[in-house]
Structures are given as C-alpha cells and as structure tokens.
Amino acid sequence: MDSFKTVQKNARLAQKLSSSDINRRLSEDDLLGRIEAVTDFRRPSERNYLRLLASLASVAAAVVVVVALSGSFPSTLDRRHNVALSVRCFTTASLNSSSEVMPMRQTRTLGCNWHLSQDAVLSVRSIFCVLNDGQVGVFPSRRRGATCATVGLPPFTPTSVPQLDAMLVQLAKINSRTRCDHPDALVTKAGITLGRYGVANWRIKNSSSEGCSIVVIDREKRQITIVDRN
Amino acid sequence: MEMPRQANDRASHEEFTDFVRQYREDAFRYAVFFSGSTTYADEIVAESFITLWSKWPQRKSSRNLKSWLVAIIKNQTLNTMTSERARKSREMREGIAILDQHGRQELANDRILILHECISTLDEEEIQLLVLCYVDGLNYEQIGAALNLTPGAVSMKLTRLRRHLKEKIEYLESVASNG
Question: Using CB atoms, which residue from A8, A10, A31 is nearest to B32?
Fold first, then answer.
C-alpha cells in the first residue's frame, strides 16, 4: 500500500466538507462563544449598529420618496417655473384601473390617498413610475417586490434635486442619424430618462406617424415631442 | 485556564472577529486534514483560535496570519491527538475501550499517528505547501504566488516533500509492524 495515500485520504475528507457540514459542527456563533468563554475576547457590537443604520437608511429612503414627490421638487425646479406639481394616482397596480390627478400638496404625507383605512395605508407601498405622457404615476401595491415593470412602465426615481442638465444631455443622445427608431421606442426611452434623473412634470408628446422618428426637446415648455425624422 | 493579557482595543477585537469569520471554514478543513477525522476538528479549531487570540498582539502583518493559523492548528492537532491517544491507551489498559475483533480501530489510529509524527517533523513552508496543495486545492502558480515561489520551485519542493513523507511513513510503518 502507498503510505502517502493517508495524506491524500485526509485531504479528500477535508475538501469534501461543505459549508453547511462545517456550520453544523462548528457554527460561527459557537466558535466565537467558545473563545469568549475562556479569554477576554468580546465580539464587537458594531454589527448591530450597522443593522440599525441599514434600517434607518431604509426608512430615510422611504421618507425621501414621499418628501421628494411632495415638497422638494417645487423647492428646486418647479418653483422657478411656477408650475403646480401633480401626480396621477391609480387605484390598483394596473394601468387599467381608475385614476385621478392629484396636486402634490394633497399627497404630501402618503403620496396618494387611496381612501384606505390607516392599517391598510401602512401596509401599502407606493410605486412611482413614468407614464407614457411623462407624468408620474403612483400605483398602490401590497405585494413585496412589485415594481414598475409589473405595469410595464419605466420607474421614477425621486431625487432631492432633479438632475435636469444630465437628463437633457442623455435625451440628446437618443437621436440617431443612422438608426430608424420607432416612435413607441422613443416614448419609452424618454420615459426611462425622465425617471432615471428624477425629473417630474415634463410631458412626452407623440406627434409622429409610425415611421422613423426623433425626439425634439423644448426646455421652456418642459416637453419632449416625438416627431418624424424627415 | 489563565486569562491572556490582551490589548482590549476595539480595532483588535474587530480585526480578530473578521479573521475568525473569514477563516473558520478553512481552519476546520485544516484540522480535518491534520487529524484525519471530523471528530476532534471543532475542538482543535476552537483551541487554535483561542491560542491565536492570546498571541494576537504579537501579529506582524495580515499577510502571514493564515500561515500562522495553519501552524497553530498543526500543533494543536498534535497536542489533541497525543492526549487522545494517551486517554485511549489508558482506557484500553483499564479495559474500557472495545475494539472490533480485527483491531481495525487501533490500526487506523496507528496510521494517523504515524502521519502526525511525520507532519510534526515538517517545517512551516512544507506544511504550507501541503495545505495549499491538498486542502485548498491550489495549482502551482497560485501556491507560488502565496509563498513567493516560482511554479517550478513549487513543483520541485512538492515532489521532494511527497517522497520524503512516503519514505518516512513507510519507515515508521515498518517499525510499528515489527515492534
């Protein structure tokens, strides 16, 4: 017998152990606990702080969503233009559900008022998407993980300061001299750009026939128009 | 057990906790590799990390921490297996241990002990070579990068090491069978 096989056998045994095998025999908690029991080593508690910070960050993000839509935009872009901000509130997470346009000042705390009880309101998430006309649509959802993709729309990302200049630069890149873009594709691309840079209260207007199209940007009117290329 | 003097600074505790988290699984595998069994691995790993913590203020660089851990695990395995052998022989003398009719348990233990005796004679680099090659499953280039050697040097050292171990094991086995 080749005696060196003992080494190889041990190596195979060690390699065969999966993470769950090892965890079952010696979990991280168990090991750290054994070390703590006989030494002055103590597990630092910053992990809990991190968890707390992560929770606070989630809450802050949720607050930003509501505040950004209700208050911050008028204080930056829209106040200058003296335009009343509004969103379209849908009753369910579907474009086919009934909807109404609500001024932002009425949606200051919870986005849209869906005439729900307080308990129900707390369990409902607001999903912010860009509608095909450029307006921000707000959909209620109780389902965890529901996104704008569920309703076939680009997401709207509220930011404390809408990145208008960056959005315009990106929009200008949409047009191509060589490629033939269908107007529907350009509507979607314009919506994605608006949502990505958190620019609300712009309009997307499709004035194109079904041929190759381009986008025309009117900054004063806050409008993106899809027109025929020729 | 005497409480080790430890610099109780927060960074030290954090660094050690991260190290335990990062190498706990590797350490367990090394313990299995050296001991040839999962039976004592948890005890060996726990004792090794306890030793490591008691010496933690003496660490020099994070690069050598893993080598340091491997060396401690090797020594801890030898200590554990030696005391385990002493306990078993005491039990056998007292008629407590029951071996199967072919004495297989004893034979297996002898082979493992011979291996331990061989491993105990290896230097730190040889132990690292064994662990990186057989447990971590690294290729020559990766081992070379870890130990600052060329792949050719790794190959040559491993060949010599295998031959050395094989000869040593065979010699010890022949002594054991004749004795």
Answer: A10
Length of chain B: 179
Contacts of B173 in chain A (CB under 8 A): 3
Divide the 230 residues of chain A into consecutive groups of 10 and give the mean pLDDT of each group: 71 87 84 81 65 58 51 36 62 83 52 56 73 86 73 78 80 82 87 84 84 87 86
Please report residues of A whose CB lies closer than 8 A to that of B24: 22, 26, 28, 31
> Would the CB atoms of B10 and A13 count as touching at under 8 Å?
no
How do strand A223-228 and strand A86-90 relate by DSSP bridges?
A: unpaired
Contact across the interface for B28 and A22, Cβ inside 8 Å? yes
Nearest chain B Cα distance for residue A117, angstroms: 47
Residue A206 Cα distances to A45, A113, A167, A224, B8, angstroms: 57, 30, 19, 8, 68
ipTM: 0.73
Give the CA distances from residue B7 to residues A98, B4, B15, in Å, rounded to whole numbers and listed in that order: 66, 10, 12
Taking the C-alpha atoms of residue B164 and residue B170, their distance in angstroms, rounded to an integer, is 10
- CA-wise closest residue to A216 among A204, A225, A229: A225
